[in-house]
Structures are given as structure tokens and as C-alpha cells.
Design a protein that fits this description.
Helix content is 16%, strand content 13%. The chain is α+β, with helices and mostly antiparallel strands. It has one domain.
Length: 90
């Protein structure tokens, strides 16, 4: 069997617009995030939870949309992020 010659003909494509998009914040989310000392609050990839909602868990303040995309990284109240190599100013 000549598997290698067949495999060379297979092409994969990745859409140009695929991947994470910076989050859009509501005024309520902006006020909510200000109270936490995370560097994430100034990052364009931070997606805050909507304050006073029952879901997600109470210790969650938001998600990072760049780390582990498409499965967003959770940002907790109790694990303070002081620095991040993916940080980009909003």
C-alpha cells in the first residue's frame, strides 16, 4: 500500500477569521472587574461574567479568550493573575 503518496495530496485549511475575538464588555461588567487585582482586567482577551448571575460558579469573574482556545481558561477571584505572557492591553 502506498499510504504516503495519498497523504501528500491531503490539504487542510484554517479559515482566516477563525480563532478568538476580543470580548465586548457592558458597563456592568467593567465595574464588576475593577474590584479585582488581576492583570486580566486590563487585557483585551478577558471576558467577564455578567454580575449577579446564578451561573457560572460564584468564584468565577471571567474567562480568558486566548488561553486554551476554544475552551476558555477560567479566571477565579481566589487565584490572582499578576502577569501573563498573552496579555494585550485593551
Amino acid at each position: 500500500m502506498e499510504m504516503s503518496s495519498h497523504a501528500e495530496k491531503v490539504e487542510f485549511s484554517f479559515p482566516e477569521d477563525a480563532g478568538p475575538k476580543p470580548a465586548v464588555w457592558t458597563p456592568e461588567q467593567e465595574e464588576f472587574v475593577k474590584q479585582f487585582p488581576h492583570i486580566c482586567k486590563d487585557c483585551k482577551w478577558m471576558k467577564p461574567v455578567i454580575p449577579n448571575t446564578k451561573f457560572p460558579p460564584a468564584d468565577l469573574i471571567g474567562y480568558c479568550k486566548i488561553i486554551h482556545w476554544p475552551f476558555y481558561w477560567c479566571v477565579s477571584k481566589y487565584t490572582i493573575v499578576k502577569s501573563c505572557k498573552w496579555f494585550e492591553k485593551r
